[in-house]
Amino acid sequence: MQAKKKRHRYHLSLLPSPAAAGDGAREVLFEPADPDSVAVKGVLLLTPAEHGCTALCACARLATSAAGGGAAGGAGGGPGAPSAPDATLLLDDLLSVVPALFRAFERRAAVDERALAALAGYFEGGPGAAPGAAPGASAEEEALVERSLALEERGWARVKGTVRQRAGFFRAAAADGAWGRAVADVDAEAGLAAAWLWHGTSYERLADYVGADGDAISEAVAVPGTQSKLAVFSSSLPIVGARIFANWVAWRRSAGGELVIAFAPHGEHPGCAAKREIERAIGAHRGAAKAVEGRLAGFYRIQPLAARACRVTLVVRGSFGGMVPDAVTKFALKKSLGVLARLQARFERSGRAVDAELRAAAPPPPLRRDLPAPERELVGRCRELGAGGGGARWEKLESDYPLTRMWIRHGAPPARGERSIAWGKASFEVDCAARIAVAWVEDFCSRERMQINREEGNPARIVVERKSPHSSISATIKKLPFPLRDREFVFASAGCELDDGSYVHASESVDGIVVDYGMYPNAVRGRTKCLFQIVAAADDMCNVVFYQVLDAGGRIPAWAINRFVPASLSVGEDMRVTFQRNAEVDGGNIDALAAIMRAGEQTYTAEEIEIVDRVRDQLGKVPDSSFEKLESPDYLVKMEGYYKGGKNGIPRATTVLDGDICQCAARTYLPMLRAKTKVFYESGGMERSGTAENEHHMIGYFLLDLQIPTFTPRALLSHILWKWESETSLLVVSDNISDDARYPISSAHVRAKEVLYERFEKLDPIGDVPQTRYTWIQQPDVGGLIPSAAVRAAAIGQMMELSRMRAHFDRSLEIDARNRVRTMGVIANHRGVYSDEERAVMEKSMTHYNIFEDGSVKVKKVKSMTPSITNKIAFEPGDPLGWGRSETMVRATKEEITAYLWDTEARAAVDEWILRYPALRELEHEYVWFRPMMNTIAQRLLESVSWGLKMRLYTGAGLSILDLCTDLFMIYTYATTGQEGTALSLAIMVGLNVFFQLLLTFIVKRKESRRMLLKEMLIVLSGIAPGVHAMRVANGTERSARTALNPDVELAFTRGLEMAFESVPGSILQVHKLFLTTRSEGLVQRRAFASIIVSALTTGFTAAIISFDFDVTPSRRHDEPGFYGYIPDGATSRTLIFFCMIMNGALLLLVRSIMALAASFVATHIYYASLEEGEKAVMKEGDVWMLVLGLSGGWACFFVAFLMLMKKKYWTTFISTQTGYAWTQSMFVNGIDDRMKARIFMHNRRQWEEVREDVRLWCLEGWDEWQADSPEWFEDMLRVGIDEDMVPEGWEGVATSAGIGRFLSSGRQSGAGGAGGLRRQITALLVEGSGGSGGRVAPGAEDAYRTR
């Protein structure tokens, strides 16, 4: 009998035959084809189910031999019949067709979506499948709903630490169980949200449920003819064990579209067959006998907010039975309420899109006279902000936002003891209807505004009470910088429509309200009063004026509060940015003026004609030869200057625009375009306005800050006109105005002058892209004593307006594509003859290409910034210059690539990135995942920048080298002070460290050249090996083909050797000698103390960085999320926890070293007794223990800090009672996919012996699929070895635990053998139907079914 297990081989030939079973069901019968073979019979029953699914049921009977313990099913087996154990294995193989078919046709997500769509239609009153069709809720169901709704009438307190979460969580104290309430806004239709909550047995819900609770039950049975179902589920609670809950669930839809799903213990149901079926399911569950029955009651209320948004409220009362600690009750309650958080995440969409839908669905505000008296009085008090009073006037403020104007007004002088708080005012345009703007203001906790609140780090922002859609009480806590305390604001709000059609929304602080934040706010209560006045300017535009007075309270001086008035008005900018359509609005204005220009029917006055002629004669007729070329930042814009006529000169710029002549001229003529206004204010503009005289004449006023200290702002007042010069050219000119009553020039400003000439000339189009030559000439005079050189330098910035114009109209991609198509045609049709010179150039180029292919020179791979590109460099002998080669895959034809490379003057190559930016904004608007994904990527990049890695590497290397130096110095110190034994011991430790590092170097570099190996060993002997290894890892040096380990792994081994042979034993030795010396040996003490500290820090740093790097490795976090991942993601938190880990390791080493000394009581006592008269020990015998306690206290503090900084869910990994064997087995048992299950082969076979049979069956079942796909983990599994009985029959050359071989895909025998053959036969029957070859399967069905 061989040591390894052997199994008999039984060859079965089966004859499957399909048959109808009634009600649309199908059954497949199979029996032995050979009467003399093993007796086996079976059936596979397929029954139609909902949502395009099929229910499968397989049964089989197999005769066994008498030696195996009797015949199965009463049938005696022949002499060749299998024994009972072998028969069990055969039956497992036969019945595995069911899970095989499930995997073959699995489409869980699609089935869930179908079920949700059908249920949503049912809940919304439309057609669709339902758990039980009924005309309406019965009297019993109505009573259940009413009883459940009454549960909400309690005093609720917010759950601690949940105020910043998207959903609100509350609990209530009661003696009759745990009470919980949750409120969440869901981005889905009310019916769809109700369907998700109702369908608790979907694949998605079951995956979450079973993944969290393991071996749990979750079943539901519909009650026919009603709107009810009976459901049962179990839950595992910490400490107290499992609880099982059986509920009666019913739903009701109200006239307003509100849905209520109520649930109560199933004992309250009148009783039916479904109730008995649920009770049988409970009794059949293997954990039901040990589980304690719990009771749940409550409801889900789903209120529609918009077409695709709703608000879901969950109220639940739970009684868990038995003696349940309060902490466990809170845990279970939080777990129950968490279903709404999962519901939110399931249907989450773009916050901007959902907010827009909610605003569109919001009801219009009522008239002011229809408001209740308190709200009407509130609006009246706040409207006083916009009224004048006390003779105070509004003073203009400098705004940080170009399109928002701000003012401040100081109130009357305060009475004694009062504060003088200024009022703020902001005015801006909003690109939406007035009613939509009101809805934005009323939605205090919209998704976008809550996102901004979280990004600012504010502790809270909630709606305390919503009295009506337009009236509420809200609260917020604003975070202030240290040392100021946070500020809390609680205010009432109300909105209405005035008699003139405008809207107002007022807010005012209220007193006497204590807000439940689920925490102590530790904030100072501030006061505020604000008013929004919204007036419609068009159907899709409105003008908004925002007033606010804000008192932050506390001891902040009034003058300091007033300085923050512009910041407090920034809410108006948030509103404007939400709706801004700058490009669309500007485009509409440009199109309107371009249409007027094309009409050409304009009448000009004599003064206007004179202005145009004067500017043209002054600037348009300057000879080209007078201009000298200037260096242009944009290579497509030609810049020149003429500096002979005046002190400021005449700059000129020319470019070609890809736009219509009227479009280009209109964009230049309109000074108040938003894009130009933004650039104006960003470049130092203070004020900008224009007044149209007619369709072709405008008065423009500009106030500009030169941004030079002590220089006064410049004011410019100009005529701006446009006029056709000919049929193909159009002029836009600007000339000075001496005075205009509408724009008085302040004496505090210096008057500037400007003459501007702009000419647009129509050119021949390129394909369908129009072309316009744009010439810009200016003669500036900024006034005052400003050097002309500074004015000339500023002219470059002025001429960059042409670059912005070119970018606005740029269609380079279309032009370049057209040119490439033309070049591709030339390449495809080329039949020319190459000259000798051309052939020589190509042949020479090919020789450079071949040096990378023929292996004549050494080729080095260079790290690429893009993973899809491979870079290499090579040096020819005697050539000091190297050659580089890049290789990648391009989805284009050879002609397309050649044309792209040939067009060296392509314009799009320069502007490619600029043209891509709008697409990113569209992604953010369309996809909900885009912003969180980009935030996460940016955070990860900031946390993993190279300086952080290099700092850790070089710090560790520096400590290692310093530790070696201090140890060598202490060897010298001990040897020269008569302590030769200690010096020798320490030298042996250092020598062992060097020896094993040399051995490691030899093992790693043994295949390198002797010169390279000698160099590496010299690095070790010189003591700089840690620094060299750290530099290689930091620079990303890759492992060569002749090196056994990667640089990072080699560095980890080096650190481990140093810690094992030098740092730890050296610290213990030196601590022992430090305390057993006398005070007379002070020099030795000081040196030993320094060496001990360095060794402890080195040990702590080494242990910390190994643990840190292991935890943050993405592959480990993915494969073992329950163990790896405790390091937080924030950069600051990572730095702090890394420091705590270093100190934990260092202090723990010192504590253990000193305790080792103190524990050796006999040696210590002898030492103290042997001291001669006059000698004193470094520390008293009792003080040694005090030092241990002190260091232990320090270690405890750092360890507690470490626990507080790490992710809280990993605390249990420090106290888990799970054994190493159980952890190894969990890799397979809890593995979510085959790749994770296969990791069990990386561990010792003895650790997973208990689950070996499950592993074997898993291998046999999935072998065909793995061989076809050849995943990387499968190759790893073969490499470490697989036992023979885990490999199916017919697969040869497989790596086993006895020896490593190579897996050959051709090892599979032909025919439909093995379990896969039977699966394919049955699948073929399902596909072909009952027709065909007389109920028999396709050819190959008679092939043997082999098993072992």
TrEMBL record:
Q: Matching SUPFAM superfamilies, A to Z?
A: Bet v1-like (SSF55961)
Listed Gene3D superfamilies: 3.30.530.20
Q: Where is the START domain?
A: 463-570
Coiled-coil spans are none
Q: Transmembrane helix: present as a keyword of the record?
A: yes
Q: What is one Pfam family matched by this protein?
A: START
What is the superkingdom listed in this entry's lineage? Answer: Eukaryota
Transmembrane ranges, per UniProt, are 981-1004, 1088-1108, 1149-1169, 1184-1205
Q: Which InterPro entries match?
A: START-like_dom_sf, START_lipid-bd_dom, START_lipid_transfer
* Keywords recorded for this protein, A-Z: Membrane, Transmembrane, Transmembrane helix
What is the protein name for this chain? START domain-containing protein
Natural source organism? Tetraparma gracilis
